[in-house]
Amino acid sequence: MAQLPQIDSLATPDKAVAKSTRKPLFPAVNLPFIGIVALLVSFGLVIVWSAVSNDPDYSFPRQLAGVAAGIVAMVILWRFDYRRLSGMTRIFLIVNIVLILSPHIPGLGTDAGMGARSWIRLGMQIQPGEFAKITVILLDASVMARYGGKLNDPREYAKALGIMLIPFLCIMTQPDLGTGLVYLFIAAFALIMGGARLKYLLITLGAFVAAIVAVFAIDELLKYQTADGTYEYRLLKQYQRNRLLVFLDQGGADMSDEGYNLQQAMIAIGSGGLFGKGLLQSSQGTLGYLPEAPTDFIFCILAEELGFVGALALLVMYAVLIIICVRIARSCGDLFGMIIVMCVVGMWMFQILENIGMDIGLMPITGIPLPFVSYGSSFMVVNFALLGIIGSVWSHGAASGKKEAYEVTH
Description:
The protein has 410 residues and is an all-alpha fold. Helices cover 64% and strands 3% of the residues. Helix 2 (31-52) runs antiparallel to helix 12 (298-331) and helix 7 packs across helix 13. It starts with 12 loop residues before the first helix and ends with a helix.
């Protein structure tokens, strides 16, 4: 018995073509993903509003503008097929080098403080190294996707590792150690997800630890005494050394600079108690005891105002977001897309652990912000852009793969 034609097949050719070429706003929507992102961003905006309300150096409307621009970037990247970027290793490498080194261009770069040259001025201040996180992830995923999930050749491993280290070496010319560490963790996740042998990974980790020890040892040998009797170091900035020393000897930390910051951060978190003091009631932030409270120490403001319950709520939202992203990565039949998503997850996990860990003395103090919570319009745009790329993997990799499988079996 012949089947009746589908309703759509009775449409006129022009209407059928128009219908087939019309694209939805999102090719495929992952409602749990959208829901947890909306909840997390809204929660972060409330905390930022409270943190900057009495600080003239920060602008909440600018944070809102960053969210608006980020949403636009997310929608555009969500609709874009990420698979078209596969194999563009050389292009990503060139873009990374240009972006990260652009602050060194005379007349364009500007000093970020503490001797770091990390910003450029194009009508407004922009941090290229922040935007380079996107291209670093795409670069590392493109490099590892070429090996099909199995990298056993030591020469190929050295080649892949060398390419991934180029952005780190470029960012250290600024120098920006915090962003450089983020690049390294992205590379580590790319190597692990890309199938590099455990033996090579352990050797690399050992070499990294040895390099850190060597830097401090060489710095001790090359240090020199200034006219005022203090010592200057050639490889590491004094504040970088102080941060590590404070982390290693918290009991003996003095009340100046990094030691002071750590003690004030722990006071803020401890004073919040179970339910906190309430929004706009952070004495540590309002009275200026915490430097850069809306950015580096935003978690302290959250813990002081909303207490343990508020901090736990944030951690639960992060956990849900990461679980959803991991599920997207696992359902993606494309290695390139899977590595992209896991590199983003790895970057977020490191930033969360480092930012919160430094506030409670479990990690050295760095300038690494808290995803979707710390103040910074550029930082917000980058995170939304990464959400858009994950959405593209879901739409064109995970969801489309399931649809094709369904069509084949039915």
